[in-house]
Design brief:
The complex is a heterotrimer of chains A (311), B (404) and C (173).
Chain A (H helix, E strand, L loop, with lengths): L1 H28 L22 H11 L18 H8 L9 H4 L2 H9 L1 H4 L25 H15 L8 H8 L11 E2 L2 E2 L6 H22 L9 H4 L2 H9 L1 H4 L12 H15 L3 H30 L4
Antiparallel strand pairs in A: 1-2
Helix pairs in contact in A: 2-7, 3-9, 5-7, 8-13, 11-13
Chain B lengths: L9 H9 L1 H10 L2 E3 L8 H20 L9 H12 L3 H29 L7 H23 L4 H12 L9 H8 L6 H31 L13 H9 L8 E3 H26 L29 H7 L4 H14 L3 H4 L13 H21 L4 H26 L5
Antiparallel strand pairs in B: 1-2
Helix pairs in contact in B: 3-5, 3-11, 4-5, 5-6, 5-11, 6-9, 12-13, 12-15, 15-16
Chain C lengths: L2 H30 L3 H5 L3 E4 L9 E5 L2 E7 L2 H5 L3 H6 L1 E3 L2 E7 L10 E3 L4 E3 L6 E2 L5 E3 L11 E4 L2 E4 L4 H8 L5
Classes of the chains: A mainly alpha (311), B mainly alpha (404), C alpha+beta (173).
């Protein structure tokens, strides 16, 4: 019985130390940020019902394709990603699947006032213009209706939201600024397998040029996200994606306006990039623990047999 | 050449050439251990097993690790963690074992302090044990540099800065240690050398010495009883094992050891697979960047008490206090002026001293992790002063201890 | 005290520990395996459209040198059946494609354009323009690597139809 008391004392002090050093200390160092579950409460609700057919015309009239590719419609601006970045600071996103990946309320707000919707008004104001001009209407008398029509059109040309893969969500919402070297993702797309070193270096030089443009636009190169699933926890990532300002006040990173489902898929991609062995770890762990139970049992039986005539 | 007869068995063949039977007798079958012990006596075996686990997992990490500042981080977090078959397992095992080994070291150390296993003939066991603690600390520190993450870099920067000796401003010494103005390629490869070769060899030599220092004084017991090992051994050998106060190392002590090890491994593997964050700090999953200091830098948990003694004071005072803290434990056998080798609960004021020291070190550990602000820095300061105070009064309270 | 019973539990525990050791050894064996990226890099694409006749081109595949030799019409005309069988025909032209390591002890033979053959400097072995050994010590022709022809390119490392047929007729060592 005395041994159980000793064990209890040892376990007690160990657990107290653990609690103080880990959960408690980390709680003190990082304030808890509440998630608003991607409600985008600060943005006005969508009141108009969008008409996708009308939206097709409004979309063209609005001039979006002047800067944005829309591959699903076969429309390309003709500017390379690198040149677009040099011109605007970052390569404007392809809009093919924006209707599926981003929140409709957010898209409407973005079209009307990009800096406001993406929460970067601390950076872009009267003295420095956001590279994307706001939509001033396409000739009609109800701008909100026109915007609703555009959003409805974008939703109609996109894949269904549940057809959006983790890879699609990441590349669309994050991939133009953030590289992920562990999946060979660069801001200019997945790094091809080159036979000759010269070609590989040329591609890398292009990526560096692009990164210089983004660095100038953002103030700092957006970090490579390969290990972010382990250097930050899931809750941090989710709240950060929802609103970067909540975790990194003053950051230049825009709010991307992804839906809750898309955010989950982005995190799924980061798990794939930084911790692909998680499932295997659980599997092997289970088997090891089962084995260990046998190990403890047989060790105990051996000890008991040896000590039978010693007590 | 000595005269050799034909051996009748393989065992006899080896015995004729190496004296295996004698070794077996002295180190296993007739190595007498007191019977009146508890599971804490198994911590030595737990440490030996954990060291073995570190060695083996280290071997497989060593096959793929690249000690180059541009390649190190990815060699660990991509190649080993994602590409190598079971590479993630070796990494997790190695990181968790490196952290848990210190928990066991502290339990082992405080067991020794509680039961007085550093006194009366056991001084060298204690001293070699403290040297092992220093060696393991150096091994852990050097190992932590290798993934070349943000914590690796900045811990390397801060700890090597200590060698500037405060107001002495020995910057040349610091640069010499680093091999560069800042932690860079030279720094990484020399700590790689230390971690993989020099310190493990030193640890193995010290373990040998530690075991050697234990053999003649024999293992202590729960009551501090003075045992006549010869008499008790005779009782055991004549068949009266139940009445004997001793047991044999093999298989008596070993079988109980193995059971404790088995329970420990359940706890260990639980951590390896499901609760490893404490051993793999998130900050170190950011690649090293000499131009960005993380918002919170802190050492691994087992260094926190030491770190906290350094922090609350001014630069020079802090360094002196830090140096004091590193060395003072070694002097325990000589600072304890009482001749009583009994458990602390029978040693009057020393009982309070023991629990005060234990609690104080836990408080120092906790404060060392927290940002040095407000109430935390006050508590840390009080705890650091208490630590020094406790060591200063130890000779006094033990001098006046009643002889039992 | 029963000796056999005493030993039994110890042996049983040893056996359980042994199972654990086997598991650990398996994990260790897997750690030695070539990495997925190494296995994936085992393919090289060779573009044959710009090969000159009777000029040896050396490519790299899985770390080994690969001889690619485009044969002229005269060279093809003077070939026997054994040599013809080893030809790889890509868009009308005949090629020798083989691993450029002497089948004696692995040195790289040098190509002699004037004689249209290979001479190995290490021990004097020789191969003809189809890679067939002609002078000892090599006793086997140069090895043909797995290949797949697509248009004017050949992918080394993949097994195409022609390669599979060559394998069936025993041309692949």
């Amino acid at each position: 019985m005395k041994e159980f008391l000793i064990l209890a004392v040892v376990v007690f002090f160990s657990l107290v130390t653990y609690w103080l050093v880990e959960p408690f200390a980390h709680g003190q160092m990082h304030a808890h940020v509440e998630s608003e579950h991607f409600a985008y409460a600060d943005l006005p609700a969508l009141e108009k019902k969008g008409d996708a057919t009308k939206g097709a015309d409004t979309f063209m009239a609005g001039g979006c394709i002047g800067c944005h590719n829309v591959k699903v419609l076969g429309m390309e601006t003709g500017m390379s990603a690198k040149d677009s970045a040099a011109a605007y600071g970052v390569n404007p996103p392809d809009l093919s699947n924006a209707g599926a990946i981003y929140d409709a309320k957010f898209l409407a707000a973005l079209i009307k006032n990009p800096a406001h919707a993406t929460v970067v008004e601390h950076k872009f104001n009267d003295t420095r213009m956001h590279p994307m001009p706001g939509f001033y209407g396409a000739g009609g008398d109800d701008i909100d209706q026109e915007i609703a029509d555009i959003v409805a059109y974008m939703q109609s040309i996109a894949v269904k939201p549940d057809e959006v893969t983790a890879e699609m969500a990441f590349k669309d919402a994050c991939g133009r600024c953030h590289a992920v070297r562990y999946t060979k993702w660069t801001q200019l797309g997945e790094m091809p397998n080159y036979k000759y070193k010269k070609d590989e270096l040329r591609f890398q030089a292009d990526v560096l040029d692009y990164q210089d443009a983004v660095k100038g636009y953002m103030g700092k190169l957006p970090p490579d996200l390969s290990m972010y699933i382990r250097s930050r926890n899931e809750h941090f990532l989710s709240t950060f994606i929802e609103n970067p300002q909540s975790q990194l006040h003053g950051t230049a990173m825009p709010r991307t306006g992804v839906t809750a489902e898309s955010a989950e898929k982005v995190i799924e991609y980061l798990e794939f990039a930084g911790d692909p062995k998680a499932e295997m770890r659980n599997e092997v762990g289970k088997n090891v623990m089962i084995f260990m139970i046998f190990f403890v049992l047989f060790a105990y039986l051996w000890k008991r047999q040896v000590w039978k005539d010693l007590h | 050449m000595a005269h050799f007869e034909k051996a009748n068995s393989l065992g006899e063949w080896f015995d004729q050439r190496l004296g295996v039977k004698t070794l077996e007798r002295v180190l296993a079958k007739e190595y007498w251990i007191p019977k009146d012990i508890n599971f804490l006596w198994a911590m030595g075996m737990v440490l030996a097993i954990t060291f073995g686990i570190l060695l083996i997992s280290g071997i497989f990490l060593l096959m793929y690790y690249q000690p180059n500042v541009d390649l190190a981080f990815d060699s660990v977090n991509y190649t080993i963690m994602q590409e190598v078959g079971f590479g993630w397992l070796w990494r997790h095992v190695h990181a968790v074992a490196a952290s848990v080994v210190f928990l066991i070291i502290y339990i082992h150390m405080f067991t020794g302090i509680y039961y007085g296993s550093y006194k009366k003939g056991r001084e060298l066991i204690w001293i070699s044990g403290m040297l092992l603690f220093v060696a393991f600390s150096a091994e852990a520190f050097s190992g932590y540099m290798l993934p070349w993450g943000q914590m690796s870099y900045w811990a390397g920067m801060v700890i090597t800065n200590l060698f500037s000796a405060g107001s002495l401003e020995l910057n040349g010494v610091v640069e010499w240690i680093r091999g560069d103005y800042v932690p860079a390629q030279a720094f990484l490869t020399r700590f790689f050398m230390l971690h993989v070769l020099l310190i493990p060899v030193a640890i193995m030599a010290l373990i040998g010495f530690h075991f050697g220092a234990l053999r003649l004084p024999h293992v202590n017991n729960q009551n501090g009883t003075d045992i006549d090992f010869e008499e008790e051994a005779e009782k055991y050998k004549s068949g009266n094992k139940a009445a004997s106060k001793v047991i044999a190392f093999a298989n008596d002590f070993m079988s109980k050891d193995m059971f404790v090890v088995a329970v420990y491994l359940v706890f260990f593997f639980y951590l390896v697979f499901w609760n490893f964050g404490f051993a793999m700090d998130p900050v170190n999953f950011d690649p090293a960047d000499g131009l960005v200091t993380p918002a919170h830098i802190y050492p691994e948990w087992y260094f926190l008490w030491s770190y906290e003694i350094l922090r609350p004071f001014s630069k020079d005072v802090g360094l002196i206090a830090f140096a004091f803290a590193q060395v003072i434990f070694v002097l325990l056998p000589f600072l304890d002026r009482s001749p009583n080798t009994v458990p602390a609960n029978r040693r009057g004021l020393f009982k309070f001293w023991f629990w005060a020291m234990l609690v104080d070190m836990i408080v120092l550990t906790a404060m060392g992790k927290l940002p040095p602000e407000g109430i935390f820095s006050t508590i840390g300061f009080v705890a650091a002063v208490t630590f020094i105070g406790l060591w200063l009064i130890l000779p006094i309270i033990t001098k006046f201890e009643k002889k039992l | 005290m029963n000796q056999t019973r005493r030993g039994f539990m110890g042996k049983a525990f040893g056996a359980v520990a042994g199972v654990g050791a086997v598991g650990a050894l398996y994990a260790m064996k897997r750690s030695w395996d070539p990495l997925p990226s190494v296995k994936a890099a085992g393919f090289t694409t060779v573009d044959l459209s710009s090969c000159a006749e009777n000029k040896l081109i050396v490519e790299k595949w899985r770390g080994k040198p690969i001889f690619v030799l485009r044969k002229s019409a005269e060279m093809v005309a003077s070939q026997n059946e054994a040599q013809n069988a080893r030809d790889i025909i890509v868009e009308g032209s005949h090629y020798m494609i083989a691993i450029g390591l002497c089948t004696h002890l692995g040195c790289i033979p040098a190509y002699r354009a004037d004689k249209s053959d290979f001479k190995c400097a290490c021990h004097g072995g020789e191969f003809d323009s189809s890679g067939i050994n002609t002078v000892l010590p090599p006793e086997k022709p140069l090895l043909i690597p797995p290949f797949k022809v697509t248009g004017a390119t050949v992918v080394l490392g993949e097994e195409g139809e022609v390669y599979k047929k060559m394998k069936e007729s025993g041309l692949i060592a």
